[in-house]
Amino acid sequence: MQPYILFILAFLIRLINLNQSLWLDEAVVAKVVKSIPFFQIPLQFSPGDFHPPLYYLFMSIWSSLFGYSEITLRMPSLFFSLIAGWYVYKIGTELKGKTVGIWAAAFFLFNPLIVYYSQEARMYMMATAFLSIALYYFLRMSLRAGSVQALRSNPLESATAISWLRNDIVLFNIFSALAMFTFYGSAFFIGGMIVGGAFVIPIVYPELVEGKIGIQQGKLYRFGIRFGMTIILCLGLVVSLLLLSPLLIQQLESAKTGLLEVKNWSLVLGKAELKNVFMIFLKFSAGRLSWYPKWSYYMVVGLWSIVVGVIMSLGMKKNKLFAYFFILPLIVGIFISFWAPMMMYFRFLYLIPVMSILLSIAIVPSKHKVINWMPTFVGMTVFIVYSLIYLLLPQFHREDWKKMVSDINPIQPVYMIVPSSDPVRYYNSGVSVYELRDIQKTILPEHIQVIPYVEEIYGYNHMDILKKKGCVRGLRSEYRGPLILEQWTCPASFVGHAGVGAI
Fold this sequence. Notes:
- Helices cover 64% and strands 5% of the residues.
- It has 22 helices and five strands.
- A five-stranded mixed β-sheet has the order 2-1-3-5-4.
- Helix 5 runs parallel beside helix 8 (124-145).
- The longest helix is centred in the middle third of the chain and has 47 residues, at 215-261.
């Protein structure tokens, strides 16, 4: 198979239902880039968020050129997924040849979780692309550094090789910094590459091989080379952290406040729990699909995850460096989550390129164009089937705010948790939205609409309060998400709207 055929198919499959409804986090992106000027985003929005500003700055420029529709907001993620796939192909080719590169790209491009996030207006595919590029230049750099004798065999070849090596180092640091400016979780993977460069990669020392220096001198020489490599590889990470530190300090304070004020917010972020670790492997293998009864979901997807894990383990035996790249960020993420919850599978999306390379290494036993057809055929078939199930069946799509907002009565006020109201404002800016948490102290009109979205995260129960006020629930409509729109009628004693909390 030619690589361009693979990428054309991957592009076309990502266009299927690209215009599905935006969900909450995507609507936040739309609001930010539409309402906040480019240079004000890091000052007005980023301190209250917990992501670096680069993705929002990029989207501000992009949307000013192409608009704010669902498709245009999602196209950058689509393109970044293809860019990441191209570098997965290049990494596989550098490691084991073109056959490994093509299959690594195929496993990545049609991975159901990658297909899902290729259609999401969030920063995760942008960060995955930058980290894949950084990994490519890291690999090139390590391969060049591992051939010291060849570099010194000819002065002209040596000068050319060293020049290329310097370019690889510079590009590694540039894309590491870009990844950090996109997603803080990139630090786990960048740190893994730095440690790998310093301690894992075998480097040939001609002076030792040729017996020109003794054992003690050799140890010092080895230490100096490793130390120097560590410093060089750290530059992009350190510079980006220094530049981001004032913002990061503000964001950490904001996050602490959020964890205190929002009762169940840590559940959304992802605690260091066995279930969250287990879900990473399930989602990496089957994407965002989920169904009832849960036992059947865990059985079907769990068995498939075991198959993927077994094939990956074969790849890990063949390439311990990439096994280390996959495992270390997960271990660090678990450790950090005891202090700052972050163990949600989508925050480790950048590991799927490594997973795809390990799968490809496992199924291609040599440099020849010979592959183990059975695991290859089964693996690609299941990945594509899971991807098509998500793409073609609406019940697996994102929250259907578009349909729910179209059913809202425009003359009746809507009560909901205001920080989660951006999708409503995106699809109908004329809807009057009021703070749901204020209903206890607010004079309510006779007819109101309630969207109880995320109220369980805030530890709030609107039902009890409205019933105590004598209100009666009428029509209750459910939408994909799940989203709920309720109609309530309140007694005449509460008629007359005070307008508290309106946006």
